[in-house]
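Entry 14: structure prediction run for Spore coat protein. Input pasted below.
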Amino acid sequence: MRRGQIMNCFDDQAKMTDALNSQKFITGNYNHYAGECATKERKDKLMEILSEEHDMQFEVFSEMQKRGWYEPKPAPQQKVCEACEQFEQKEGSF
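Run finished. Output tokens:
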């Protein structure tokens, strides 16, 4: 089976899900590498690329959301409160 034939097996939703997952992976890597830069110039360049990648991720996310293919569920209020409390505890220890 050729590449074109394989891609025809996937519908638009599957392709966009793959694109979104790829963007999440890419932004995670750029974020990691930006934190490991030895010079400000390199870090600034990676941060510029990271921002562009986040923009692409948001475009894919927005298109999927418009089509009803990706609907993040809001966090329960209890979980939000727990996260805030944990952050405040950690913030106080710095």
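Notes: The longest helix spans residues 40-66. Will compare against the previous run tomorrow.
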